């Protein structure tokens, strides 16, 4: 009998198995975190139900209030998970030396970042299913091409992930916590999520339209509410943010 005949076998597991295990661990840790659940699940759900039922802000476009609100809050869910939640969690892992220790394991660093991305995608899938179910119960009537919606969500995730990792990998954890929450609130108010961009002054509207949350919410709304085709301009904005954010994160991210 040789060492290779023993179970478990000595040595590192295959990268694919390590990647799946780390993704599952990251997802479990997120779902057990009450603050993260508040940010990623409770806040978008409450905003969807509240603003659909109460005439607090004026909305644009045809159909019911939920037809306008649902796409914007799907965009908010992507931002809360891919940017705010990921930035805060990764920032504190970096502060406490978790990333440094994981980087010394057989798990490659690229696989660790891939596992974090997989966790984001799993969480977003749960968010989309939950928010879509609630919106449908409130009378939402979505339209458009599902492929266009998928492209918007994927590029939106890439854009916000890059920005979140850039913030987490360059700032102190406390600064990341404050900055990520501040950006979340500002983009919620000024990104066309619940307040139409048409309500803002003409002088600032062109700049607001270039924000990733504005491109994502506007693109989802044009497809799901208006039944439009592929929103190439919004996809272009998200693609630029994705390239710049991911490239900057890869260049400046510090593991400790």
Automatic annotation (TrEMBL):
Question: Could you list the residue ranges that cross the membrane?
Answer: 37-56, 68-89, 110-141, 147-168, 175-197, 235-253
What are this entry's molecular-function GO terms? ABC-type transporter activity
For whether the record's keyword set contains Membrane, the answer is: yes
One GO CC term, this protein: ATP-binding cassette (ABC) transporter complex
Question: Which residue windows are coiled coil?
Answer: none
- Name the chain's protein: Transport permease protein
Q: Name the family.
A: Belongs to the ABC-2 integral membrane protein family.
Q: Its membrane topology, per UniProt?
A: Multi-pass membrane protein
What Gene Ontology terms for biological process does this UniProt record contain? response to antibiotic
Q: Residue ranges of the ABC transmembrane type-2 domain?
A: 35-256
Species of provenance: Kitasatospora cineracea
In terms of superkingdom, the source organism counts as Bacteria
What's the chief localization of this chain?
A: membrane
Where in the cell is the protein located?
A: Cell membrane; Membrane
Keywords (A to Z) from UniProt: Antibiotic resistance, Cell membrane, Membrane, Transmembrane, Transmembrane helix, Transport
The beginning of the lineage is: Bacteria, Bacillati, Actinomycetota, Actinomycetes, Kitasatosporales
What the entry lists under InterPro entries is as follows: ABC2_TM, ABC2_TM_bact-type, ABC_2_transport, Nod_factor_ABC_transporter
